[in-house]
Amino acid sequence: MPSALLNNSDPATFSYDDWVSFAENFEIQSGLFINGSYVDSQSGETFDAINPASGDVIASVACADTADIDAAVSSSKVAWDDGRWRYMPPRERMNILLRLADLVDEHAAELALLDSLDMGKPITDCLTIDIPEVSVSLRFFAECIDKVSGDITNTDASALHMIQHEPLGIVGAISAWNYPLLMAIWKVAPALAAGNCVVLKPSERAPLSCTRFAQLFIEAGGPAGVFNVVNGFGHVAGKALAMHMDVAKISFTGSTAVGKKLMTYSGESNLKRVALETGGKSPQIFMSDLADLDQAVDIAIAGIYDNVGQVCNAGSRLLVHKDIHDAFVEKFIEKSKQVYQPGHPLDPATSLGPMVSLEQRDGVIEKVEAGIKEGAKLEFGGEIPSDLTHGAYIQPALFTQVTSDMSIAQEEIFGPVVALIKFDDEAHALSIANDSKYGLAASVWTSNLNTAHRMTKAIEAGVIWVNCFGDGDMTQPFGGYKQSGNSRDKSLECFTAYTQSKSTWINLA
Predict the structure, then answer these.
(1) What is the mean pLDDT of residues 401-423?
(2) What does 350-396 look like in DSSP terms, one character per residue?
């Protein structure tokens, strides 16, 4: 199916054959995007983008090294210095980002296809969750542009004191592969809206939608050089961006281990700001007085098995009160059979695609084996589906009889593996919930408002849900405590974090 027809049709009506036909005939842009156009890497090096559902090569992608990072940052430096973006009238900058959101909507099918091919996410999830949220994020931050004002403080009449918010300069964004375009936009949109120039290094595991998005920025009227995309590996391109002396801030989503390296690189270079959204091991706490056990189990299943568990805030620890433990486990096992069965990601009926790579899948299998050796009971899953051995597929897994000291209860598996832990009372549940180096998210299920209030105050996490999991909108700051990071995505708090304050004192005497 030609791309023009695909993008101008209702993607909800597309069949598996439509998507396959389009994928076979779609021309993928695989260069670096620097100064408004696609270019090859200066070394000529490439890496293969692999479809995790089949193992096939989707495209040979230009692979950036230090020279390409220098070129991208230099392009942004010219754009920053001449003010083509930061000095643009705020409403004009807003209108460009709003047009960009419109273009994302127009090209939703194409962008969804790229993410599905590149990362293995079911096409229906890409169309109904990821790409619509990209548009929402762009519009939210666009509308922030003329809503943040400075202050004139109440000083002595002999002086005028003004506090202004100004962009930082050049922001280096390093985004994750689990929501390829959306995670990038959570960084790119507020940085651009605040008036910064941006150099994005998407994950080498899923860069294709980000590269295409950069071209849409130019089509929307964005000036060349303001937004550049450099594909490459973290230990080369990512490090070069984090060490660059002209980069004012690094914004990162990924592993805690890499986040720690980025803070070191900041200290070794120019003390650039470092914003981290890193790992998680989120507890979902189910008290005995919860209102609806069936609903709670349904949402618990979605909270860990969505996106094959490849979610930083996945509710991978289920803490269940002893009085409802057996009924909870029984319902969880039965309901899990009805949903999240692996299938081809381009089939609109598929609810569970492959993991992003064979390496990622094999790492999850190792963690499952470790859980068994530690004495946890594997109720189901954790194996490769017999009819899907050609891709990076894995069956969702549930462990019971888990204790908090086991590796499956402490380590971020980043896969569809549940560690279910029985607790005795509220104090016991809170002790287990906070027994983690992570503190990204959590949930509490109870009918008692006092219980909910006490527990949300006591839980060490940046995002907490009560009687739900994963709910929210763009007003909600997203980020964690402890080793889950030091910053927030989404929200006005995120927008202002891409600015710095300037204090101007004028002597009127």
Answers:
(1) 98
(2) -SB---S-HHHHHHHHHHHHHHHHTT-EEEE--S--TT-TTTT----
Active site positions, annotated: 277, 312
CA-based nearest residue to 248, from 493, 499, 502, 504: 499
CA 30 to chain centre: 22
Q: Fold for domain 283-473?
A: Aldehyde Dehydrogenase; Chain A, domain 2 (3.40.309)
Mean pLDDT of the chain: 96
H and E: helices and strands count for the chain: 18, 21
* pTM exceeds 0.85, yes or no: yes
Distance CA 483, CA 109 (A): 36
In this structure, are residues 496 and 191 in contact, taking their beta carbons and an 8 Å threshold?
A: no
- The rounded distance, in Å, linking the Cα atoms of 435 and 422 is 14
Q: Which of 185, 95, 188 is nearest to 142 (CA)?
A: 95
Looking at 239-284, list the stretches that DSSP marks H as alpha helix, in order from N- to C-terminal side: 239-243, 256-268
Question: What CATH fold (topology level) applies to the domain 3-8+17-26+33-278+487-501?
Answer: Aldehyde Dehydrogenase; Chain A, domain 1 (3.40.605)
